[in-house]
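Journal club side-thread
Mid-discussion, someone asked how the predicted structure for our own chain would compare to the paper's figures. Pasting it here so we can look after the session.
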Amino acid sequence: NHRDALLGTIVWGHLATVAAGVDTTEFGQVAVLLSAIGNRRDLLLSKVVWNDLALRASGARVSEFGQISSLVEALGDRGNELIDLVDWAAVASTICETADLPDLGMTRQLLASLGSKRALLGHEIGKNCAAAKLTAKISKAPADRFEETALFLRSLGNPMQGIDTAQLKLTARECTGNNLKGLTMLMASLEDESRTDLLKALDWAELCMVCPIRLGMLGAFGSCLENVRKKGELSSDHTGCERVREYLRDHLDEIVLAVEESYAHAGESALYYGSIAKVLYNCCELDEVLAFQITEGTIETAVQHFRIMPHGYGRTSKLINALYRVY
């Protein structure tokens, strides 16, 4: 009751003028205010001069993107009133001209906050005349930045043109351990020609054998297996496949343990089902007997922990299809 009494004393037109006039660095505070006033927010938003907010958002620095994201998310179904007025070409220019690799996470957050309208920014980044500056930085990304770089590229909605795979190959050849997850994610985020270039250039059999076989890394391991197969098909040289078959047989117990642990944690995320599916399917393509042994050794755990989760139907389907392929 006291809250309603307080909100009833507010002059919403004046508050709207103040809110629309804040600096970009204070957008987050406006977001907090919108959350605090609850169902009264329309009283405020109906009096906001959206052009003023959009002008400031258009000139934001990369370090301020988090503030814009917070405001757009707080606006909820009124967010499009701001999004449609922002000069996304100007925002894209700021990204291409000034963003460094550590800034890609903030940019990805902004893209995510745009929801179905992220193409407004993604398209402008792709066609910006300064995009070459950004792709040059991406091409020289160190291995420990591969995963964040891949997530950024994926958030654009379409593959980014102009990435120099010659530079990426130099770094990728040195990848080991956890960085292989980032490498496989980055490769999947590239355009077809660049992806094929990396497929041919790297020793995927060797990368497969240095990839950790454990919880959280099965997706990367499965991708390495897939690339071993595809490289063999492209080159008609199946030496890599033979090396990997022998390696898989020698590490059967490790694979079974990692798959069991992934099943046990699948209730946390359907990503684990997708990772198991990738390993089983590609193992089956390389060695059907081995894939059967892995499946038989883990099926009891799979049944015990099986869940169908919201937003996980696609990965669950892939797992079911992989199991069908094995059996």
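Post-session note: The chain has a mean pLDDT of 93.
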